[in-house]
Amino acid sequence: RVLDTITVLYYNHQSHKVLKTSDATYTFANAIILLNSDLHNPQNETKMSEELFTKYAKRLTTVRIYRWKF
Q1: What angle do CA 31, 23, 44 make, to 5 degrees?
Q2: What pTM, to 2 d.p., does this model score?
Q3: 20: exposed, middle or buried (C-beta count within 10 Å: 0-12, 13-18, 19+)?
Q4: What is the rounded CA–CA span in Å between residue 47 and residue 44?
């Protein structure tokens, strides 16, 4: 319920509507949590690559994938 509330609030306050629905926002938030778990799990020997994560995230038809520059 916490994640659901956070994602609805984020969806309602985003200015560019990168995520087109609150459901897409919720799904993308879960994907980020799974990616973080994959990265920090010491028992996981093969980490998910950026390309693989992007491939899976693109399956969410309501999400536009951006490459963030740091």
Answers
A1: 10
A2: 0.66
A3: middle
A4: 7
Mean of per-residue pLDDT scores for the chain: 79
Amino acid residing at 12: N
Q: Round to whole Å and give the CA distance between 58 and 37.
A: 20
Between CA 70 and CA 60 the distance in angstroms is: 24
> What is d(CA 5, CA 13) in angstroms, rounded to the nearest whole number?
12
CA 2 to chain centre: 16
Instruction: Burial-class residue 19 by CB neighbours within 10 Å (0-12, 13-18, 19+).
Output: buried
User: What pLDDT, in 10s, does the model give residues 29-62?
Assistant: 888 888 899 989 999 888 888 888 888 777 765 5
CB 27 within 8 A of CB 66: no
Query: How confident is the model at residue 60, as a pLDDT?
Result: 66
